[in-house]
Specification:
The chain has 20 helices and 12 strands. By secondary structure, the protein is an alpha/beta fold. The chain has a domain at about 515-595: Methane Monooxygenase Hydroxylase, Chain G, domain 1. The model has no long low-confidence stretch (mean pLDDT about 95).
Length: about 600
């Protein structure tokens, strides 16, 4: 398999269902994407769906099987691997007659792609089909079927009333499901460090390099700052595990769960990675080689490759190019805009319409997640609408069947989900016993009712799009687009979106879209105001934290102002927009007082 890459962008994971089958639409054209493997029930249903579609035998994996979660994940990933490889062979075979699939592969490539020129030269100058096919086998890149695990979603599990060992925890079982699959791709770990899960990686040979530096299953860490990357990278290196990629994501200008930084902004963070990449490689390589020797594992002949990628709020070809050119980013993540591409993501028609019409105030940072982490949400999504109706009927909360986000032990010895009917009935009973004022009681009820069953909501669209049975979980849809979605206002084709990324087409009709860096700063300023408003009884620690937050934002503005003086030419418009927008935001930030 070639080490070449066809494209300069990737499609990140979105929810549990939105990119669950995206590789089947894009991988054969050399585009990598990320599948969530948190919901094994959805994967099992889709495996049955595709098996029937392809007239393949299907043997269900029962929940009465002790390792059903891992086995379902492995089975689904193996099927997807086979389907993608078959589609990729069709692309290569179509060169014989210069067919549509090969033409599509070529047309999607960037215009400046050296690979594109190589392919054209090989096809035009070689009359022997066998030689061309051999060259394609060795040189034509296929997109990765990467998988994502949220490290903290690692619930303990039971079988026949007995608690299972930690390797049967949710995240551990998902990791094992990927490790046992035929995939040659990457495991994207997000939501911070889980030491026990990281240690479990050592149990699988596919995560270790061979003497040539080849790793069948690579580790990618999604991070929001350099310090976190260095700590986690060293931790894994000491276990003989190499981090092949650090995927930098904006703390707030992104989709899904949002993890705010201490006010550190994306530009300065990218600059730190750029300036320290060599040191990061050197420090972690030394630890890695030492650990491999200690474990009597194969030690690579040379230092291993390390990629730095970025995602969060990118919306124009100019922003894409700037990240590549100035920061040396290896690939740029394009997430939320692809939710408007039905060829690529599973989004039902009603949600697609609501999404395409959404403006800034309809895309908000909510408290919907049962994990207690802020969550990007869309007003008017059908899951929340259904939730409100159930509260009116005196049936708050959702019946908890998937139990993927159980974490609260306020009212029970075992964790339960704050969006569940069980928890919310207990909460209401507790609130009634406290003799609260009507205002206080209603406020607590409103806070409680914000929680939404994301286990069901984030997979529902995939059930609807593929005409799967929704009777078990209902058809209410939750969706988690980033703020950038406000500037994309209509459904697009796969080709149109790729052309937009590469500057061959424009999908943004609005002329008031802020620069991605300005937008992130704006969101952080709003977040700071919210944190100050929530500070009822400020103590010294809280005040110092918010002051540091504000100082970091001001330092970020200073960085952007100095940055705009460092480049000329093709990014002049980019520079002028940053300067203008930063000036206004700095004035707004300076007026914010931590204590009135």
């Amino acid at each position: 398999m070639t080490n070449k890459t066809a494209h300069t962008f990737h499609i990140p994971v979105m929810g549990t269902g939105y990119t669950v089958n995206t590789p089947l639409q894009v991988a054969q054209y050399g585009i990598s994407s990320v599948v969530s493997i948190v919901d094994d029930i959805l994967l099992e249903n889709l495996r049955e769906f595709y098996s029937k579609q392809m007239s393949l035998p299907f043997q269900p994996i029962s929940d009465k099987t002790m390792d059903c979660r891992a086995e379902r994940i492995t089975a689904y990933l193996n099927l997807m691997d086979k389907m993608v490889k078959d589609k990729f062979e069709e692309v290569k075979d179509s060169i014989v007659e210069k067919g549509k699939e090969f033409e599509k592969y070529m047309n999607l490539l960037p215009d400046v792609s050296t690979l594109k020129k190589e392919i054209q030269d090989k096809v035009n100058n070689n009359h022997y089909v066998k030689d061309i096919k051999n060259w394609l086998n060795d040189n034509l890149p296929i997109g990765n079927i990467d998988v994502n695990i949220m490290t903290k979603v690692d619930k303990e599990n039971y079988f026949q009333g007995e608690k299972l060992p930690s390797e049967y925890n949710d995240a551990h079982a998902a990791l094992r499901g990927f490790a046992n699959s035929t995939l040659e791709s990457s495991l994207v770990l997000s939501a911070g460090m889980n030491p026990r899960l990281y240690g479990y990686l050592e149990q699988f040979n596919d995560f270790f390099p061979n003497e040539n530096g080849y790793i069948k299953k690579k580790v990618v860490l999604k991070v929001s700052d350099y310090r976190s990357a260095l700590i986690q990278g060293k931790f894994l290196a000491k276990k003989g595990i190499w981090v092949s990629e650090y995927r930098i994501e904006s703390g707030l200008n992104c989709g899904g769960h949002a993890f705010a930084t201490d006010g550190s902004l994306m530009g300065p963070i990218l600059e730190e990675f750029k300036n320290n990449k060599s040191e990061l490689i050197a420090d972690t390589s030394e630890l890695l080689f030492s650990a491999l020797q200690t474990k009597n594992k194969i030690v690579p002949k040379e230092t291993l490759d390390l990629k730095i990628t970025a995602q969060g709020g990118v919306g124009t070809s100019e922003e894409h190019e700037f990240l590549m050119d100035y920061y040396g980013i290896d690939s740029v993540g394009w997430g939320s805009p692809f939710l408007l591409v039905p060829e690529v993501c599973d989004v039902d028609k009603k949600t697609l319409k609501t999404l395409s019409e959404a403006k800034e105030d309809e895309l908000y940072l909510s408290h919907s997640s049962p994990l207690g982490v802020r969550f990007n949400n869309l007003k008017g999504n059908t899951r929340d609408e259904g939730k409100i109706e159930m509260i009116k009927e005196g049936k708050p909360g959702s019946i908890c069947t998937k139990r993927l986000l159980v974490a609260n032990m306020e009212y029970s010895d075992n964790p339960i989900c704050t969006a569940s009917r069980q928890y919310q009935n207990l909460k209401i009973k507790d609130l009634k016993s406290q003799n609260l004022s009507e205002t206080e009681y209603n406020l607590e009820i409103e806070r409680m009712s914000q929680k939404s069953c994301l286990c069901k909501g984030l997979s529902a669209a995939s059930y609807l799009v593929n005409n799967l049975d929704t009777s078990a979980d209902g058809d209410g849809v939750s969706i988690c687009p980033g703020p950038n979605m406000a500037y994309f206002s209509e459904a697009a084709s796969f080709k149109q979106m790729v052309d937009h990324i590469y500057g061959r087409f424009n999908l943004i009709s609005r002329t008031d879209r802020p620069n991605m860096f300005s937008k992130e700063l704006n969101i952080y300023i709003d977040y700071l105001k919210e944190q100050i408003a929530d500070l009822k009884d400020p103590d010294k620690k809280s005040v110092r934290s918010l002051e540091k937050f504000k100082t970091n934002l001001l330092n970020g503005i200073e960085y952007y102002n100095s940055l705009s003086d460092k480049f000329k030419g093709q990014f002049d418009q980019f520079k002028n927009q940053i300067k203008s927008e930063m000036s206004k935001l700095e004035m707004e930030l300076q007026q914010i007082k931590i204590l009135s």
